[in-house]
Every structure is written in C-alpha cells, then in structure tokens.
Amino acid sequence: MYAGAAIAVDLFGHATPAGVAWLRCLGAAVVLLAWRRPGRAAWRGRGLVLAIVFGVVTAGMNVLFYEAIARLPLGTVVAMEFAGPVLVAAFGTRSVRDVLAVVLVACGVVAIADVQLSGSVPGVLFALGAAAAWAGYIVLGKRVASTSSSGLDSLAIGFTAATVVLSPLAFGTGEVWSSPRMLLLGVGVGVLSTVVPYALDQVVLRRVGQARFAVLLALLPVTAGVMGFVLLGQVPSVPEAVGTLAVVAGVALRSRDESAGPASEPPG
Asked: Side-chain half-sphere of 117: how many Cα atoms within 13 Å?
C-alpha cells in the first residue's frame, strides 16, 4: 500500500494530488472489472447501493490522504489517520481500557499535529478528514464483506462508480496522459495501493471482527514510516515518532480485549 503511496508522491510533480487519487481509482476500477466481471445480480438492489457508497467513501478517503501526504510526511499522515479506526474500535464500549486507548491515540495525534500545524494547517485538516473517511471505510467494508455474495465484486462496482462521481478531478491529470510511463505508474498505484490491499481487507473482514482488524491495522503507521524513510528519505522527528508509537499502542490496547474472542459485528 505505501510503496504505491511513495510512487504517488513522485507523480505529484506532474498532476495534482487529487488527480493522482482519481488515476488510482480509475486504475483499480479497470483492473477489478477485468478480473471479477461482476454479474447482473451485482448491479441491482441494495447491494449495488452499498457498493456505490462504499466506493465513493473509499475514493474520497484516498483523495484526502493524497492531499495530506502532498503536504506532510507519509508516516505522519498515516499515524494521524489512525484516529478514525480507533474511534470505530472504541464505539459502543465503556471499559477503562477503551478510554485509555482513545486517550493514547488522541495524545499521539496531538503530538504529531503540534509539530505540523505551524508548517501545514491544510495538511493536518486533510489528514483528519482522511481519518473520518477511514472510519467509514471500516464500517462499510465490514458490511460489504458480511452481506455481499462477493466483496470483490462490490469493490469493482464501487470503484467504477467512484471513478464516475469523482471524474471532475481528472482535470488535474493532464500531463500524465502525454507520458505512457506516468500513465503506467498511475495504474500501478491503483494496483499496489487499492486492488491488492483492499482485496485482502475483504478476505480478512469476512473472518474477523473490527477490533481484531484494528490490531492488524496497527502495523500500518510503522510500515508507512519505514516506506517514507526508505523510498522518500523522510526522517521522523522525536515528537512524530513518539506520537506514532502512541497511536499504535492505543490501537493494540483497545483491540486486546476481543482478540481472543469471537468476531464482533460493526456498530449500527
């Protein structure tokens, strides 16, 4: 996922961040449609509505995420995004451990944001917006995985719909279409950052609840930080590193209660 994000950062010099996010959505839709070829039943009824909403919310999350990483380090943005998954994991519970987990995440996000606010207020706002959208992705993704006959078919339909809904963002991709190499990279971002990880998410979400899923997501800020350092040369400051660790600790602490029990259902 974050190898794809590193490639996307390189494309920002040739297209807007939102334009690159649209290319990612387009590439994912083309690959998923060619792979899955959803049948007629997948294109009607409540399943179709759920797939469209899921696709648009997920694509919107990607747009906000790219706007954020255009202004802030990759690892920093991913850590701030984690406010969304942890709030989902803590929803509807009142234990002391849950409260401590939320406090840890809040402190982590504040530590990171305090470093970045002086440099990029829009970057922080985009990252927090992506966090809210990520919460929506988890809740809707669980519903897609639980209620659809094929979550992967829903992914294909959802990203196709999102490509159409967000088509005005294509105006920010002008220079990419004149270079086969950049166009191939744009499709590659869709495969690396969307097709592979989101397809795997559907497999995992069919088997585990949201809390256990959050434990696995706790690996992402660390992965993003490593990728940002190795591929983009982004070295986190001490407050950013401490904030990232606090976010990861909060996710792990909140999810520990249910990790040995049966899968939980999504809220609502």
From this structure: 8
> How far apart, in whole angstroms, are the C-alpha atoms of residue 122 and residue 126?
6
| Residue located via tokens 């407050």 | 239
Paired tokens of 228: 């940002």
Pick the closest to residue 149 from 66, 39, 64, 49 (CA basis). 39
Q: Are 159 and 194 in contact (CB under 8 A)?
A: yes
Cβ(50)–Cβ(129) under 8 Å? no
For the record, the structure tokens of 121 come out as: 């207020």
- % residues pLDDT > 70 (the chain): 85
In terms of DSSP H, where are the helices of the chain?
Answer: 2-11, 17-36, 45-69, 74-81, 83-90, 96-116, 121-147, 151-165, 180-190, 196-205, 210-217, 219-232, 238-256
Given a cut of 70, is residue 169 above it in pLDDT? Answer: yes
Using CA atoms, how far apart are residues 110 and 239, in angstroms rounded to an integer?
A: 10
Residues 194 and 55: their CA atoms lie apart, in Å, by: 11
